[in-house]
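Let's practice the habit of predicting before peeking. Look at the sequence and jot down your guess about where helices and strands might fall. Then scroll down.
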Amino acid sequence: MSHVTRFVVLAERRLVRLLVAVLPLIGLISALWWPQAAHSQTGNSHKIATDLRDVLQSPSAAARASWARDTSSGRYVRVLVVSNSPDPELTELRAHVLAAGGSVYYRYLAVSALSVLLPADRVAEIAQRADVQSISPNRPARRTASLLELATGAADVHAGSSLGQPGLDGSGIGIAVLDSGIAWHHSNFLDAAGKSSRIARAVDFQKAGDMTGKLWQPGVDVSASLNSGSSSGRAASAFEKLIAADRTDRADPYGHGSHVAAIAAGRGNYQPVDSTGIAPGAKLYDVKVLDDAGNGELSDVLAGIDWVIYHAREYNIRVLNVSMAADSTESYLTDPLCRAVRSVTAAGITVVVAAGNFGKDANGAEAYGTISAPGNDPSVITVGSANLKDSAARSDDSVNFFSSRGPTRGGRIDANGVRQADNLLKPDLVAPGNRIVGVLASDKQGSASAFAYLPRTYPDISAPYGGSGQPKLKQLMQLSGTSVAAPVVAGTVALMLQANPGLTPPLIKAMLQYAAQPMAGANLLQQGAGLLNVAGAVALAGALRTDIATAIDAGTLSAGSPLLAAGKSLPAPVSTINGISVPWSRIVFVGGNQIASGSALFTQYQPLWDPRLVWARGTAQRSTISWWPAARGEAAPAWIRSIVAQPAASQRLLTPGVTWAAALAGSSSARGLTGIFIPTATLAGWLAAGSGLVLSEGIVLSEGIVLSEGIVLSEGIVLSEGIVLSEGIVLSEGIVLSEGLVLSETQVGPTGEP
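Done guessing? Here is the structure:
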């Protein structure tokens, strides 16, 4: 696994000279009025992330962190400052950063935050401000990599069999791929006529990063001119020109993003080895945040997320695939990347994330609590990896050894100085992620001499398909990892949205879990609700009314309103895939550590299907979206200005009639196979038999608190049973094994498990 590169923002030279000239004056003025804006230092250390505090306090720690640097003027750190200010421009906070001798590189839309450079000795001063919620280092983020059609049930969906509707291929749906680029010229990305590329747009945030991220220069604020939004409701033209990367000669020099995109939406039925993905008619949006060596930085990823949110309505981007990982030691409540993907969800875009490839520790023991960020956020669909055993039969499938296990272990320090772990149920489900075939990226001529880094460095991954002797622009390779499992689900979401464009992200996640197949021998923390069932999820999507999302936005749906489409009924909770009956799990994770079930989840409107509402453990948040006014000729506002999350008001979360299954699981014991360690198939069997408590009052949020305990993890008991329980994932910068290239159980190599 290797990392992801640095990115900050372009400063025009004249602007830099001007700011440097006026900086002393700004500092003098700020000294007169800044104390009024700040709290006392006491009690604010919890705002500073633990790894950042270590570097601030240690003389030698800076040498180990790419986001810290010792200069002749002292130590500087590149950090992300998250704010709760009502001002979307963060004007006062930006000015304070400048006055403290820092620079402001980027102001984000997805999360109210700034990417800044600060003198290390001024970080605590910024943390004192009442409008600062947290300060995190600009950590590295990392990429996490047709049998596929047959094994998942997608073949039946493409053909239209057993669905009572025409075949689906994702047409009309946009999937954004946040990765290393997409080789637009490869034949797998052509339309059905074989003439035009389905890569509709390509943007490269490394272009902005190359010019601004390596300055390490204090006194610069370019955040106002370099972002995706503007008062006119259109992306700033200068910024769009800067990041434009359409039809470049080598769109993906690393080779990871092309493979991911092909799994989601490739069209490979022209080849001897059919490499067709899940949604071969979908349009793809290439959001490049990794450089030629697969390196990048959290600030790049956040900027790419902003672009997706801003252009979502313009391009009908309904799905965002994130096959990369970052540290997950920080609570999802404050982690900048988690907050950003929650905003994406609130904007109505379904976010699919790789769980991570950290399922075993250095000693080979199974490691729980290893979900990476942003897969630890409750709003996203977190996908683990399953091994198909090179066959379309599902009976022998299993969870890959490398696939990260739950629960989430990011945490926060409470008022008593005690770390409180999030402990949310993850992954949500698993999908095929072992030796999955897809696109091999090269230049636009398909030259073997121009192969991307991955196939050039690991020739074994293309050898089964002919290696360098393959026909140009038709080359294939295989990868393993949760990063290639995630796009299988992303493609499935596109099919579901084609079948029913009115679905919301949380409703889509619930359908995917409910229809998943529980695999034998794996528990809730290993496989979530089970193995992806494309046919079942699409059938469930087709049974519901198609105006759900618009009705939620209009406020015309109340708790318990009917959701079934006219003349439709819910499909039976079983699918037939390759002639074999596949039972559904009927399991849905809600509230972070709760399990719900029953047909009422889909026949009646549940307020949790509002994508702006996120409930986890005892609290719930609601996001408010503001829009730029509609431009002339626009029927409705199309450009998001800001997304702000606040505690949700008292309301019903689930209606009466929903089946409550948390109590069935019991207390958590690995030895007893209960609680979070209960085999998914066992719990699914009980639910199919009619077990579980049918709620008579539903679940209600009252005064900001949800009085429902859910499945509890007693860490003392778990540790006493010999379970390896992580405190979250810290991605070492020295690791060079990609999330898409995992070690085989029998050999050191990139080809996955046997």
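How did you do? The CA atoms of residues 176 and 662 lie 35 Å apart.
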